[in-house]
Amino acid sequence: MKAVTTCLTFVAALCSCTVAAKTAEFTQGRQLFSADNYQVLTPRQRVGIENQILMQRLEQLLPQLMAETGLDMWLVINREYAEDPLYFTLVPQPTFAARRTTMLLFSRNADGSVDKLSVNRYPLGEPYQSAWAGGDLTAQWQALAAEIVKRTPQQIGINVSAHWAIADGLTAGLHQQLLKVLPAEYHHRLVPAENLAVRWLEQRTAAELAVYPQVVSLARAVIAEAFSNKVITPGVTSTDDVAWYIRERYEQLGLPVWFMPYVSLQRAGMPCKADSPACGSAGVIQRGDVLHTDVGICYLKLCTDTQEMAYVLHNDEADVPAGFKAALATGNRWQDLLTSEFKAGRSGNQILAATHKAAAKAKINHSTYTHALGFVGHAPGPTIGMWDNQGDTPIQGDWPLYANTAYAIEGNIKQALPEWDEQLLQIKLEQSAYFDGKGVIYLAGRQTQWHLVR
């Protein structure tokens, strides 16, 4: 607990200034201005905090999840440059690969604790106890089998899954080798560990939730820089220029993006159909344009996914016209309708259906496609709609909502603009948030005011 306390004390010092947006109706609005207002740890500094968080997850969270999913043992077996997707979430930093063949064995004891063993040529060190180290691959497999048999588990989880890609990391070759070395009576004890894998990846700890706001603030602050006159000269700057600014700015900060940023524009005379999944195009930015971006970064092993909107003022305008403000307010209203349906135990499909019902009553033309966040941007957890499917999503949409899990509150609304002769404007929003079991808290606030380019 001392390490965890130190971790929380340290990360609390990372927080820097933000400006709370004053809105008459919508809570948690926050306007950011520059990533210069936020500290970014060096790669060397990140190792300590990441490993402290990992220790908390392995010591406190993993025993809970193994008991919850009924597994006596969990095997994560992978090879160099063909790593299991979960591997880097389970091992201390700095780790560059599953060198040669790396085997992790987690065994639940009668008292609920979990032994953490490594069976590989290069011992990992704490928190793993080395059950075997050497150079002979045949001996390594035999050592793994002996350790399994010695502990007599009844349910042995392996990472195979027909439905969750992130829980399907055991390759066919390694699976066959495992069957060869295990006694036949153990074969039927091998079961998919997909429920444990999903829960491990989606569950956030107190230490992670302490640092997550800093990660999201950095993501939002770079968007604020990009959607300003620091980057945009109307009539000169293109949407592609802005997208590359965002990417290169993150690279300067040492923050990897997990997809190339998107930037698009909408303007009067460019029709947006009511049933179009996406409105907007590329081009040179002009006064009167509406801008949109979609960006995602990963920092301290936690990923973000953010979409925000900007307006480019005409020379005779001092503020955003009323119709545009009303459209953004409708987007915020849609967010509130969606997040008010977050109830622990509800499936993603149930949340989506309830949101559709509430939005129809409010006469909001919307599309909802919200997903989990965590160690990856499109993380496992309850799928709440998809951009190309506003009905039920089998399997992933049936997954229930758990407390202390993070989400990209993502979707869009369309609304007619009086200023554009009733042409539809699409407001596309995505903000990183978490569900604490009672309600949804935006990790670095949400956009309730337009970014302005003057």
UniProtKB/TrEMBL annotation:
The UniProt record lists the keyword Coiled coil: no
Assigned keywords, A-Z: Signal
Residues of the Peptidase M24 domain: 216-381
Domain of life: Bacteria
PROSITE patterns for the chain: PROKAR_LIPOPROTEIN (PS51257)
Keyword field contains Signal: yes
Signal peptide stretch: 1-21
Bilayer-spanning residue ranges: none
Name this polypeptide is given: M24 family metallopeptidase
Lineage, top ranks: Bacteria, Pseudomonadati, Pseudomonadota, Gammaproteobacteria, Chromatiales
